Amino acid sequence: MNHLMTFWHNLKHSFGNLLPIVLVVGVFQVLVIRQVPDNLSTMLVGLGIVVFGVAIFLQGLDLGIFPVGKSLSNAFARRGSLPVLMAFGFSIGFAAVVAEPALIAVAEQAQEISGGRIDALTLRLLVALSVGLVVALGVLRTLLGHPLHWYMISGYLLVVTVTFFAPEEIVGLAYDSGGVTTNIVTVPLIAALGVGLAASIKGRNPLAHGFGLVALAVMVPMIAVQLYGIVVYTLLPSPADAAQLAAAAASAAAMTSPPTNTAGQQALSILLDLLSMLRDVLPIILVILFFQYGVIRKPIPYVRRVILGFAMVIVGLYAFVVGLKLGLFPVGRSMAEQLIALDTHTWVYLFAFAIGFATTMAEPALIAIGAQAEEAAHGKLNARHIRLLVALGVAIGITIGVHRIITGDSIHYYIMGGYALVIALTFFAPRFIVPLAYDLGGVTTSEVTVPLVTALGIGLATHIEGRNVLIDGFGLIAFASIFPIITVMLYAIVMELIKADTGEIS
Question: What element of type H or E holds 16?
């Protein structure tokens, strides 16, 4: 009975994530576009599959991954062994990111559009390795008590430097890859590890030292993927010419069509896809088994429930990916095509702003982080104010990203300008807000929002003359990650100035 109630709660949570998108799309379809999109019934079925897939996935996390992962985090934090803690941080960061649904969606899109030049599995492994290494580094930072801002300033200076040399085909994808690494799987595990570790060490502040792991996990993949792009596009021979890339883009658009295979072929395809999902989740299973039995040397409690949880994660991931191809990808591309066809681009900007704000306000990871921050700050922060600021930042970021696609400007200057502003604000912002602000930039887009925003960017680049889908289609998620950092730090700076003027003690 408890499991049924939990599943019902997860189903409502999943539907709540999707509802803002449905409402915004519905309002624009009825009041602005005034026409019904093609394949509406297929899109609706796909959206329904996404809702059930995410609900099953969340149920599996609750039953299997989260309890065991948090138990291991607490056990290692109590032990205080630096090598073991860093090894566990690396392993859990790597394993969780490999199975991240949003990263899977972006990587598959990149492979399709690049004609196979960017390999989806290689991209995911590279991002997962980056996150694993940076979580280990973040654990070391917390143990040593180093302030986060020096890590972030140095890191983003390196990010901007690499961007100068990276080929334009990879820049948007690299920044998007950083933005999708911390989401439905990774945020709870990484945040619990950081806050739990800071709380268990004398002299550490959970707000100043516990937050920041998520921010580091966003930053380092940006560097790694741009270096990967330099190798692929500069040092390796091209495997495809322009005609092949165009055919690949057409193939990516065709992903929205329902399959027409025979029943036997469909059954085989389903089996192969489920085995693929098992491969994605297998690293998490192996990490947990190794540390549980090889390091802690205690059996996993409630083994049957944990096995059921992992099975539900695999089935939920499969349903999620199927729903993406039938529902969210077509919705994003359809809206882009229909809005671009209107006489003015104003409606495109309004749609981008509305989607960014509405979906972020409903983002459960943001709600959870906001509540944790309010509790850790002892009255200095208000959770609802945080959500409003972050939602405003995401809305502004996606709108600016859409403007870049429409005008055809280079993403280099937008991204470098955005992070230059972030670095400058870091020097002036109150120290207590910096780790939280950077973390909030990494939890702004949900497993539902990322595919829609990605599809919107690709749809705009596809239907605007003179745009390259690979160069111009990616990057919206990056903008959604930068601007919440800016809005939160600006708010903290303004509040500190007001308190100074009124004579209050912060």
Answer: helix 2-27
Q: pLDDT tens, 400-420?
A: 999 999 998 888 788 888 888
Query: How many residues are given for the chain?
Result: 506
Write the pLDDT tens digit of every residue in 375-396.
Answer: 666 666 777 788 889 889 999 9
Q: Provide the pLDDT for residue 323.
A: 81
Q: Which residue in this structure is represented by tokens 């990494």? A: 442
Burial 416-430 (b: 16+ CB within 10 A, else e): bebbebbbebbeebe
397, pLDDT greater than 90: yes
State in Å, rounded, how far the first CA of the chain is from the last one.
48
Distances, alpha carbon 486 to alpha carbons 41, 246, 355, 414, 439, in Å: 40, 37, 19, 14, 12
User: What is this structure's pTM?
Assistant: 0.72
CA quadruple 143, 366, 426, 403: dihedral positive or negative? Answer: positive
Output b/e per residue, 444-454; b: 16+ Cβ within 10 A. Answer: bbbbbbbbbbb
- Joined together, the tokens standing for residue 82 give 């630096």
Cα separation, 215 vs 238, in Å, equals 34
- What confidence category does residue 104 fall into, taking pLDDT thresholds of 50, 70 and 90? confident
364 and 310 Cβ atoms separated by less than 8 Å:
no
Greatest CA span in the chain, whole angstroms?
75
Stretch 243-270: mean pLDDT:
53
- Which residues have CB under 8 Å from 342's CB, separation 6+? 32, 33, 348
The mean pLDDT value for 353-363 works out to 80
3-state DSSP call for residue 479? helix
Alpha-helical regions (H) of 145-240? 148-165, 168-179, 186-200, 213-230
In the DSSP assignment, the letter for residue 471 is H
Say how far apart CA 134 and CA 428 lie, in whole Å: 25
Q: What CA–CA distance (Å, rounded) separates 160 from 178?
A: 14
Contact 480, 49 (CB under 8 A): no
Identify the weakest region by mean pLDDT among 131-145, 256-270, 309-323, 377-391.
Answer: 256-270
For range 35-41, the mean pLDDT: 76
Residue 353 has pLDDT above 90, yes or no: yes
Q: Rounded to the nearest 5°, which phi and psi values hold at 159? A: -60, -50
Chain-centre distance for alpha carbon 57: 16
CA proximity to 478, closest of 236, 178, 70, 169: 178
The Cα–Cα gap between 61 and 65 comes to 5
Q: Can you tell me the distance from the alpha carbon of 291 to that of 236, in angstroms, rounded to the nearest whole number?
A: 39
Burial class (CB in 10 A: 0-12, 13-18, 19+), 68: buried
